Amino acid sequence: MSHHDWTHGVYAITDAGLLPDDAQLFDGCECALRGGLALLQYRDKSMDDVKRWRQARTLTALCQDYGVPLIINDDVELALRLRREGHANVGLHLGQDDGELSEARQRLGGQAIIGATCHGRLELAEQAAKAGASYLAFGRFFASSTKPDAPPANLALLGKAADFGLPRAAIGGIGHDNIHLARRAGAELLACVHAVFGGEDIEARVRALNRSLSREPPLEATIQGLSTG
Ligand SMILES: Cc1ncc(COP(=O)(O)OP(=O)(O)O)c(N)n1
Ligand SMILES: Cc1ncsc1CCOP(=O)(O)O
Ligand SMILES: [Mg+2]
Fold first, then answer.
1. What is the CATH number of the domain that holds 135?
2. Can you say whether the dihedral through the CA atoms of 164, 194, 29, 41 is positive or negative?
3. Does 41 appear as a known binding residue?
4. ipTM given for this complex
5. Distance from the CA of 25 to the center of ligand 1, in angstroms?
6. Is 73 a residue whose pLDDT tops 90?
7. Locate the Thiamine phosphate synthase/TenI domain: which residues (predicted)?
8. Cα of 102 to ligand 2 centre, how many Å?
């Protein structure tokens, strides 16, 4: 677990429409993990607490096998319950309407990974950084079939967000054709639903995304290379 670098790479997010039952969810996530993930997020908007607990618990154990953190979307109570069971690899993602980040930080402790949605707004990123966020998520950058009405954001924002000193996640329509653009603009984490889970051979899809990323080093590495080389 400790050697895993969660701050760079593909950040896969589950979708209950694309992975409609336990078997498809667990199998799809295992394939994605085999392809190489920085982070996996469990995103399920249902009110079915029994299902959510069962699925999140199994995904936690699966992620542990691969040394990858599991991020719970929206639900601090679920994340807390898993951490209290001893799953130190569980984190949380909070949007602007999902509760106070500072309170979640207090409850989950200093070690938990907590991400924050900042849409296209640097002032939200500043607030989230001050409240104890571990990473800042920006977007949507491209058209998204998963969340078409998410507020749009401009890629130039990612460069401006470097000063917060936290990993930047890009989300919204990220896929094979544009992942390099989000990386080049500064995103360390490339968050995808459809590009990972929206087709056959999930492992191959993640491997292809990783190959695109390896051809496009992080912005800071490029700048450092230019200044030293
Ligand atoms: C990595 C990442 N970034 C943004 C979001 C969106 O969070 P939110 O605005 O709360 O919207 P929902 O996902 O809850 O619909 C995310 N989940 N993950
Ligand atoms: C949850 C969320 N928030 C902004 S866009 C989005 C959905 C991302 O899904 P996709 O990668 O399929 O566009
Ligand atoms: Mg949310």
1. 3.20.20.70
2. positive
3. yes
4. 0.99
5. 19
6. yes
7. 10-196
8. 24
